[in-house]
Structures are given as structure tokens and as C-alpha cells.
Amino acid sequence: xxxxxxxxxxxxxxxxxxxxxxxxxxxxxxxxxxxxxxxxxxxxxxxxxxxxxxxxxxxxxxxxxxxxxxxxxxxxxxxxxxxxxxxxxxxxxxxxxxxxxxxxxxxxxxxxxxxxxxxxxxxxxxxx
Length: 128
Known about the structure:
Layout: H1 3-17, H2 25-36, H3 42-50, H4 62-65, H5 68-83, H6 90-103, H7 107-126
InterPro entries: TerB-like
């Protein structure tokens, strides 16, 4: 993944996490884990860390339209974030549907990813 792609992925994921107007504790923990494993410049880290406290600007979605691998990564992680607090707010579902539409992802693929994520989250909930 290029440096620009890594930064955009973080931007997309923070936009997803803030879709319901707040960053839930569980979402913040997931994002902190992702951030700890991603290579960003010092300036990029400062910007991304600010997103823990304030909603980021609307991301540029163009990069996702032409990169199917990146689409799946972002959609899957956005779904994990949305469901991490054990519920999906209406705003989060709308955001996920908007993400599907922005990427041009087929609904069957989108629903398949959602089912996979739901199984993952259900398994995680069962082990608590």
C-alpha cells in the first residue's frame, strides 16, 4: 500500500467511525490498534490523532472506485467499526450503504462482507 493509500484508509475509517456523530470507545480502540501498525509520517500521525477528538473532513472517495482490494479492506473495517459497540446506529447503516454506492461495489459482495463481519463480531461477543 502506498503512503497516500495508507493515509486515505485511515481517513475513510475515521469517517466511518464518526458516521453516527461520535467516536465510541470500542471504535477508538480498534482505530488505535490499526494506527499502531500503519506506517505514517510524523505530520500524518498528528493529523490522524486529531481525528480521535474531532470528526475528520469528508474524505476523497475517488481512490476507492478504482481499487477493488482497497474497497474490500475499507468496507470490511468500516463494518467492524460500526458494529464494534454491539449495535448499528441508523447513521452508521446509511454511511455503509453510501460507502457501497461510492465504491460501486456489487450489493451481493457488500452483503457477503457484512455477513462475514457479523459472524466475526458474534464470535467475539460469545467469547466475552
